[in-house]
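Subject: mismatched residue count in predicted assembly?

I count 444 residues in my input, but I want to confirm that the predicted structure covers every chain. Input:
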Amino acid sequence: MTYLLYIVVGLAIVVFQTTLPMHFRLFESLYDLFLLSVVYLGFYRPIREGFAFVLLFGFVMDGMSGGPFGLYMSCYFWLYVGMLLLTQFMRVSNNLILPLVVVGCVLIQNIVFLGTMAVFVPEVRVPSLSYQRVIIQLVWAVVTGPIVILVFRDWHRNLEKWLKTFEPEYR
Amino acid sequence: MLLIVGAIILIAVNIIILSVNSQERTPSTRVGQFTLFLISPFQKTISSSIHFVEDIWRHYFNLVGVAQQNDALSQKLVAADNKINRLREIELSHARIEQLLAFKSELEQQMVAAAVVGRDPSPWFKTVIIDKGRDSGVLRGMPVVTPSGIAGLIIDASGAYAKVLLIEDQNSAVDALVQGTRARGVIKGEPSGLLSLHYVLRRHAVDKGDTIISSGLDGVFPKGLQIGYVHEVNKPHAGIFQEVFVTPFVDFEKLEEVLVIIDVPKPVEFSDS
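Triage response: the counts match. Full output below for your records.
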């Protein structure tokens, strides 16, 4: 059930990110919403759930993107590893660190993408106005990221509790 | 210690894979086709729904100013009738001249119309997804145009959908000519959203406002398709080339429908390796 939920949420994020910005300029400089999933899975969910989802949707995003194949998968994978390491050193129950973590992830992803463009793709120049786009993404991330993660965490917990009521031993 | 060595090896392998994948100009193929097959129907549904709601809004809820607009338009109609008579004469003579100038090959080109249903998830890469694929005869390497000019190139196609690399992407390249002077160069995407015409010799005259067209020498885009107009020309003190920046005729922000030319003389099929 959990995996089905992740797949539905993941597909919704892909469709949202590749469709809505075409119609609503408001979402043009939105950050990659999958990063919220990476943070959520790294902080609050077991590794067996996280790795599968992170790699699967990294694969899907690479298929949809025109960038070098493997870029999204690599980015999500290493950020997820980073989240796991963070849980070793920090108390993730402290919600105040979430804005910092989300902003950090968005920043790292942009650096990786622009760095990849600059280093690997021949003749490509890094956009001079990139910083404006990155700043808008960071503002979006700090405002919406922690709220989305916390709301989804509570909703997911409640859903799991509700689903447990159908298990035989619970009754 | 073992963990650190393992992590270093993993990072090295990762960088090598990315490096190898980056060498390929057009990432492909089965993975891309699978994800197109998986995601694009949802994209099409969402896009259609948004268009539907927008249409309802435009046609039924936005009627406040229509009555006033109707009065003004009635007055304009009388003036327009007179103008139409004059223009009809001009149109007839223009049609005759156009028939003489039109290239026969252009008239014979077969095209498939497609709607844009999705765009690249990353703002740093410029691709779009269209709702026509191999089932409609759309293959990798086929040029994509709009009535305004060249839009891009098919880089991946599944049964019902295809991915288009727009000419504003920095990986894109189109062999081009300055229409007036026939100076030749290669159009590439710029981060600013403009295009740049590379390898134009300093001795060739290129002026602001000149139209840039495809040369047909790349074997992908038919000759004579419009690309854009010259926005800026810089002649640096050193070097044999001049810097030419071009504004594309196609408005990529509002790209909704495109045409795929499916009978190009020599469709370029990229290898999957």
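Chain A touches chain B at residues 11, 14-15, 17-23, 28-29, 32, 59-72, 74, 77-78, 113-114, 116-117, 120-121, 123-130, 133 (CB under 8 Å). Marking this ticket as 'not a bug'.
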